[in-house]
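Hello,

Our lab assistant flagged a job as stuck in the queue for most of the afternoon. It eventually completed. Since we weren't sure the result was trustworthy after the delay, we are filing this so someone can double-check. Below is the sequence as submitted and the structure that was eventually returned. Let us know if re-running is recommended.
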Amino acid sequence: MHPGGFLYKQTQRRTLLQAMALALAAVFLISSCRSTTDLVLDDPVFFEDMVNGALKGDRFKITPEDYPGIRNLLKDEHPDYRLAGVILASQADDEELYPDIVDAALDENLDVSAAAKELIAENPEAFRPTIMDLLDTNNPSRRIGGLLLLSGLGGEDVVPILIEYFNDFDSGVRNQASRSVYEVTDRNNPFLREALNSPDPMTASIAYKTLGLYADPDDAPVFIGAFSSENADIRREAQLAMLRLGDTGLPFLHILAADTSKPYRVRLAALEVIQGLRSTGSLELLLTLLDDKDDRFREKAETILGTYGSEAVLDLSNLYRESVETNRIYAVRLLGEIGSASALPLLVSALNDSSPKVRREAMDSLRRFEEDAWPAMHDNLSDNAVILLMEGADPWLVTFDNGEPNQDALFLLITQSGRVELEDYLTRAGISKLKSETILSLEEAWHTADEFSELDRLIAEGRDPYLKLWRQRELNLVAARETLKQSFTELHRYFESRDPSDLDKAGVTRAESRRLENLARQQKAEIDRMDEALKAGGEARLNRYMAMRENLVRTWEYTLPSLRPLAREIYSEKGVDPDSLVNELALIE
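-- returned structure --
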């Protein structure tokens, strides 16, 4: 298609002045008898008519005398005039105007440049010399334009010419040369491959830049190899090329970064690309590098890990479950630093990790979340979770939101806490005085029950002579009282029935009571005859036993009804039956 027809896109402005000019032009044309196909650009009367006609596709008879006018159009500030200039230059079809057409191909207006480029595309070989002249200018912007137009000509033969400008002193020219090679040929072009090994570092670096534009995974080994280059520009372009490959290049990067036999600079180049990609697929490597023998890589890996966000939670969670202790520690630490709520279930589960170091790290990470971590710990309560909830003074450890006692949490709270910490927590959590006193009493009973149970076993097994006799005497006294009460019952029955047999039964029962009392007296006498040292030790243990028994009984009796199930669980855990203790003490008293 002819440029005039191709680029006619809009209806030209028709002002009143233009209409008058056209009318006058018609009068002058008639009076002067000039042909309407002649190009008249030097007469203001005919100028607009000529421009509009060119834009509409009219053809004109053009002579060299018209070239100055055409050149003026090509330089006009109005795009429509410049477009008309391109159309008229194409009608002239003269090499003398080729430089002007080439300049128009670089016009900032897309319509103008497209029209000129279409002309060049119709006869590329004719315009090649003029385009090549642009490449020899001192103006970088014109050299850039020349490279752009040269690549537009197409053909593999332009590649060597374009590569010559890989070492141009102007970065814009170098970049355009790279882009132009990318647009006209494929990644396997021999000239491009040869340029990778150019003795000129600038040419080689731009060659790597160009090859990187194709982003072909098959070139990853080439870029990885360039990481060993002594030239920083080559290394940088190779790194940028690996960045373009994205995750497909990670296996190569991981191998190189982990290879301790490689120089620091080479490994660092790989690690910098890994940092730029920030892929969750690199987490395992980065965790491994935290134990690298070179502290510079440890610091670098830690820095990179610190850039990850919530997108890494799933991968870190998987790594935690599959890794050795060291990696689990790092995974838990990083999850805490990321601070995403999605990490809370894993961090809470890590409170039960087999490694104390991992558990401590999990606690530190959960502290970062403060109250936001409480619900997750409520759902998976553990000893360490209780510690954290106590630190935060979470009242949930004592009561649920509905006011009911939280028996499971209270059991852990009482059995795993020290007295001072428990008192401090109850105060900070705002627990009522009555409930706090009960909880503290149960905490004391929990610890008392250990010693009490030990003494109780000592007595039951008869391993302490003093306590053995005391226990037998105590049992006999209790039995004597019970028997005496029974004899009174039988005697009362006799008074009602007047049956001699009831009286006989009462007598037998009373005699048994006296026998038990006498036995208790004998045992008391045996105790009194004991060695003083043995007796003193026994009395001390006995007094301690009786005090603990009384304390356990009083604690049980004063426990709030709502906390009785908890108290029973605490006593039972230590092998103490509160009901038996209460009955036993009542009989003795």
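-- support follow-up --
The delay was a queue issue, not a problem with the job. The result is valid. The radius of gyration is 51 Å. The chain has 33 helices and no strands.
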